[in-house]
Automatic annotation (TrEMBL):
<feature type="transmembrane region" description="Helical">
    <location>
        <begin position="216"/>
        <end position="240"/>
    </location>
</feature>
<feature type="transmembrane region" description="Helical">
    <location>
        <begin position="174"/>
        <end position="204"/>
    </location>
</feature>
<feature type="transmembrane region" description="Helical">
    <location>
        <begin position="146"/>
        <end position="168"/>
    </location>
</feature>
<dbReference type="Pfam" id="PF00209">
    <property type="entry name" value="SNF"/>
</dbReference>
<feature type="transmembrane region" description="Helical">
    <location>
        <begin position="307"/>
        <end position="332"/>
    </location>
</feature>
<feature type="transmembrane region" description="Helical">
    <location>
        <begin position="12"/>
        <end position="33"/>
    </location>
</feature>
<feature type="transmembrane region" description="Helical">
    <location>
        <begin position="90"/>
        <end position="115"/>
    </location>
</feature>
<feature type="transmembrane region" description="Helical">
    <location>
        <begin position="386"/>
        <end position="404"/>
    </location>
</feature>
<comment type="similarity">
    <text>Belongs to the sodium:neurotransmitter symporter (SNF) (TC 2.A.22) family.</text>
</comment>
<keyword id="KW-0813">Transport</keyword>
<feature type="transmembrane region" description="Helical">
    <location>
        <begin position="425"/>
        <end position="446"/>
    </location>
</feature>
<dbReference type="InterPro" id="IPR000175">
    <property type="entry name" value="Na/ntran_symport"/>
</dbReference>
<keyword id="KW-1133">Transmembrane helix</keyword>
<keyword id="KW-0769">Symport</keyword>
<keyword id="KW-0472">Membrane</keyword>
<protein>
    <recommendedName>
        <fullName>Transporter</fullName>
    </recommendedName>
</protein>
<keyword id="KW-0812">Transmembrane</keyword>
């Protein structure tokens, strides 16, 4: 990249920083914890094919659009909508609400990862109790997971109070590649276990007879969640982007990294799962049970790998959750004139409360239901199946019908300095195809849930 030999490097440096921040937001629990268990619950290969179609046809274009809106206005989500057309402020506010709801359960799982770092040290892998039972007992305990969740949230609060750019970025730059390398190592181990072939078949031989409206909605929701789309997060990141950066290329890179990590997590987990004779549809415990089981097979060194894995998972979760917290905090600062510290503390307190409810819904409060599900599932389903997809649909309608085509062309081609021959295709996708596609998937999904 350094063509001139002086000065130019800085440019590359900022680009790298942006890509890492956006990829840091995207790559998180969604890829390593959620993607595998959604795949397991939705029949394997067919779900992955649907997921990839959603990413390619819908989410990639939505990401480009979010970057474009952010960079055009240089404002975070709510402000961005508001300046372009103030009737659309609600769409930004919907994103802030989504961030709140996601942070109603995300810190609970972040806390599990935190706890598993310590548990890996203290005999989880060699315990006489089956690893699956350890997990079940842990998450339903009324105190322990709440303790770890609060630590996880406290780290978020400290980071966001200081502004995101400091330590977390550095930690991310080291630990994200570590996570990647570990996933590759785990995958190799997993594939070479006797009986692993069934897992690969489960992942890569799609059986479409298991697909219904719900599967498609689950795939779409997962794609939005995993890519941090449909709630203004990528609008906010786009607002920091330099006018010279190529939006399309950046979106493509982030999407490829995110999808790569998700697929890799699947390859790490399913071959081992089948080799151990476990059930693919075990739900949220999947990564916390299968990965330690793989490491337990390795003897003493396994504990070291396990510690490393959960540190990396926790940091991946952290680089995502700070972006969620920041969406709410930026809103309070920009629109409500709140001081950063105060905004962070108020937001953190509310999230602690909702996360306590979510954590307790795994045990003590498992009988308390909202619309037939516990708090954890309620927050999860509400965002992943409804809010994010609707947020994405609103964004597409807004960009396609309420922004000027020339302005968009200007953003996507950097004022005509780069060629974006696919512009018309992107524009028509955003304007016509994506809003209709999301509406159809949402209606089909909701109808098949009712049945
Ligand atoms: N993409 C993150 C993950 O995969 C979660 C997230 C969703 C972050 C929405 C920001 C906005 O874990």
């Amino acid at each position: 990249m350094d063509k001139s030999g002086n000065g130019k490097r800085e440019n590359w440096g900022s680009r790298f920083g942006f890509i890492m921040a956006a990829a840091g937001s995207a790559v998180g629990l969604g890829n390593i914890w959620r993607f595998p268990y959604m795949t397991g619950e939705n029949g394997g290969g067919a779900f992955i094919v649907l997921y990839l179609v959603c990413v390619l046809v819908i989410c990639l274009s939505v990401m480009i659009a979010e970057f474009a809106v952010g960079r055009r206005t240089s404002l975070a989500a709510v402000g961005a909508y508001k300046t372009i057309d103030n009737r659309w402020t609600f769409a930004g506010v919907l994103g802030v609400i989504s961030a709140f709801f996601i942070m109603g359960f995300y810190p609970v799982v972040g806390g599990w990862a935190f706890a598993y770092i310590v548990k890996s040290f203290s005999g989880l892998l060699s315990s006489a109790v089956p690893i699956g039972d350890v997990f079940g007992a842990f998450i339903s305990n009324p105190i322990q997971p709440i303790f770890w969740m609060i630590i996880f949230l406290a780290v978020n609060v400290i980071i966001v109070a200081k502004g995101i750019s400091g330590g977390i970025e550095k930690a991310g730059k080291i630990l994200m590649p570590t996570l990647f390398v570990l996933l590759i190592l785990i995958s190799i181990r997993s594939i070479t276990l006797p009986g692993a072939g069934a897992g690969l078949e489960f992942l890569f031989k799609p059986k479409f007879d298991v697909v219904n409206g719900q599967t498609v909605l689950a795939a779409l929701g997962q794609a939005f969640f995993s890519l941090s789309l449909g709630m203004g997060c990528m609008i906010t990141y786009g607002s920091y982007l330099d006018k010279k950066e190529d939006l399309t290329k950046s979106a493509l890179l982030v999407t490829m990294m995110d999808t790569g990590v998700a697929i890799l997590a699947g390859v790490a987990i399913f071959p081992a799962l089948f080799a151990f004779g476990m059930e693919p549809a075990v739900g949220p415990g999947l990564v916390f049970v299968v990965v330690p089981s793989i490491f337990a097979e390795m003897g003493g060194i396994g504990a070291v790998f396990s510690v490393l894995f959960f540190i990396a998972l926790m940091v991946a979760a952290l680089t995502s959750s700070v972006s969620l917290l920041e969406v709410v905090v930026a809103y309070l600062i920009d629109q409500k004139n709140m001081e950063r510290k105060k905004a962070v503390i108020v937001t953190g307190a509310i999230m602690t409360f909702t996360s306590i409810l979510s954590s307790l819904s795994m045990g003590l409060m498992s009988g308390v239901k909202l619309f037939g599900v516990g708090f954890f599932d309620f927050f999860d389903i509400l965002t992943d199946k409804i809010f994010l997809a609707i947020g994405g649909m609103l964004l597409a309608i807004f960009v396609g019908w309420f922004m000027k085509k020339e302005d968009l062309k200007d953003e996507l081609t950097n004022g005509g300095t780069i060629k974006f021959g696919l512009f018309e295709i992107w524009y028509n996708l955003i304007k016509y195809v994506i809003p209709v596609a999301i509406a159809i998937v949402a209606i089909m999904g909701i109808r098949s849930i009712e049945q």
